[in-house]
């Protein structure tokens, strides 16, 4: 078809004599072959380009695919590094808080254990008294509960009432705010005037849980000696004569095993007294548990 059209287009030239004889045929044949080869080459180039060309949606924007992959990898590494650093800070802070708190607790337990570790307690021991109901009361009544003892006398004009009022505030705060129940005990240093009935009447003005203890002079003196309580009465006191009793001013905190824990003086106010008691309650470890710990690998913490 192409050749026919070509000759038709060239026939006027042949007829006009511009192109003649063999020259015309050779020229036409060479032109046809050139056009055919050129067409084939162009088709091959187009097919090659199409086969290598990738969809625009997969081409990276702003650079080659390799550079884009490198940027993605770099961003991923930076993000991973940031997460690792944040995790390290959180975990490190948590561990520091835990071990700091645990260290304080262990130190408090070691101190409490040291107070028990030298045989017989420095403060406290056997005694034999009666309560304000006339019933026997000994050191065995201290076992099984936290107790706090105060030594005074009912005729005390100011110090004893003030301290017993403060004790009542401690008891209310411990029970209401912290769920800690105590056994408060008032031991008289003046058994000559403080009978069970007198104690009972006197203690009505203070916290209802306070138990009054009394006994004979020798029994009271022995109990005071066990707790290292100093007291004295004037010599040659006549019956019915009013007098004051000089005595130590401390609260004696005893643990549920009946062991002395802390002597709390007048410097403890409503808040600091409660805090001190809570501190001892939280760090208290029963004897059975202490014995078990001594057989563990971390027993060196209690040495």
TrEMBL record:
Cellular compartments per GO CC: mitochondrial inner membrane
Residue positions binding Cu cation: 156, 160, 247
Matching InterPro entries: SCO1/SenC (IPR003782), Synth_of_cyt-c-oxidase_Sco1/2 (IPR017276), Thioredoxin-like_sf (IPR036249), Thioredoxin_domain (IPR013766)
Residues annotated as signal peptide: none
Record's keyword terms, sorted: Copper, Disulfide bond, Membrane, Metal-binding, Mitochondrion, Mitochondrion inner membrane
Record domain Thioredoxin: where: 118-286
Disulfide bonding pattern of the chain: 156-160
GO molecular function, one term: copper chaperone activity
Pfam families, per the entry: SCO1-SenC
Localization in the cell: Mitochondrion inner membrane
SUPFAM superfamilies (UniProt xref): Thioredoxin-like
Domain of life: Eukaryota
GO biological process: cell redox homeostasis; cellular response to oxidative stress; intracellular copper ion homeostasis; mitochondrial respiratory chain complex IV assembly
Coiled-coil annotated residue ranges, if any: none
Primary localization: mitochondrion
Protein family per UniProt: Belongs to the SCO1/2 family.
UniProt-listed PANTHER family: AT19154P, ELECTRON TRANSPORT PROTIN SCO1/SENC FAMILY MEMBER
Protein name, per record: Thioredoxin domain-containing protein
Gene assigned in the entry: TDEL0D03990
């Amino acid at each position: 078809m192409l050749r026919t059209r070509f000759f038709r287009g060239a026939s006027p030239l042949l007829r006009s004599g511009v192109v003649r004889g063999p020259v015309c045929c050779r020229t036409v044949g060479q032109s046809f072959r050139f056009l055919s080869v050129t067409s084939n080459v162009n088709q091959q180039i187009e097919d090659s380009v199409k086969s290598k060309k990738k969809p625009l949606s997969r081409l990276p924007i702003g650079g080659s695919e390799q550079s884009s992959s490198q940027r993605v990898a770099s961003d991923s590494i930076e993000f991973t590094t940031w997460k690792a650093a944040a995790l390290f800070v959180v975990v490190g802070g948590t561990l520091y808080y835990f071990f700091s708190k645990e260290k304080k607790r262990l130190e408090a337990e070691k101190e409490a254990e040291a107070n028990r570790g030298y045989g017989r307690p420095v403060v406290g021991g056997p005694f034999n008294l009666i309560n304000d109901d006339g019933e026997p009361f000994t050191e065995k009544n201290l076992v099984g509960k936290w107790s706090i003892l105060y030594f005074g006398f009912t005729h005390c004009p100011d110090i004893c009432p003030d301290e017993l009022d403060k004790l009542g505030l401690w008891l209310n705060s411990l029970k209401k705010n912290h769920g800690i129940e105590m056994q408060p005990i008032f031991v008289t240093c003046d058994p000559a005037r403080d009978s069970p009935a007198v104690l009972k009447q006197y203690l009505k003005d203070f916290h209802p849980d306070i138990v009054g203890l009394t006994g004979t002079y020798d029994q009271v003196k022995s109990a005071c000696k066990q707790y290292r309580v100093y007291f004295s009465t004037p010599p040659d006191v006549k019956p019915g004569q009013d007098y004051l009793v000089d005595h130590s001013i401390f609260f004696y905190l005893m643990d549920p095993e009946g062991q002395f824990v802390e002597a709390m003086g007048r410097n403890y106010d409503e808040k600091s007294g409660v805090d001190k008691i809570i501190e001892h309650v939280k760090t208290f470890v029963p004897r059975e548990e202490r014995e078990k710990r001594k057989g563990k690998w971390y027993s060196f913490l209690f040495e």
